[in-house]
């Protein structure tokens, strides 16, 4: 059973998607939900089917008091590392919500203070609190949609299916075609080698 709030009704929940991917951005969402927000299928986005996430997205967007999504792209990920990029994405999403907040709840165990607003890191928070679960759905659906667009440019990597994660078909395509400008060069793209030239 997901809880409404950790600390305050006027709190932002935030989460990210795409940390473990070889290609594409890391994407974060942040939002404030109204008192009593409910949807019977809302849960951690990783536990939901793609069709259920797509069903939830417009419902969340319609009922949230405010929400925002931010992408941090591979060049920046390579520059500052994936953890810092994930936190930067969450900060940017919080910036864009545009509402006053008293508290921030974050999925996971790592965050950097945002302005002077108190925050709490909650392990598996996307399975405990509605605002983090809803943020996880938005982050995942927005990132998936972005990767489906990139698929049109580079169909041989099957990003419509794997969304940039290190699947067998994605790694096979990297072996065959090399890397694109959308790959994270600081990541270990293939088990047998640390770096490949830019394709």
TrEMBL record:
GO terms for biological process: DNA replication, removal of RNA primer; mismatch repair. GO terms for cellular component: cytoplasm; ribonuclease H2 complex. PROSITE patterns: RNASE_H_2. Its EC number is 3.1.26.4. A divalent metal cation binds at residues 15-16, 107. It is found in: Cytoplasm. Residues 9-199 form the RNase H type-2 domain. This is Ribonuclease HII. It comes from Cerina litoralis.
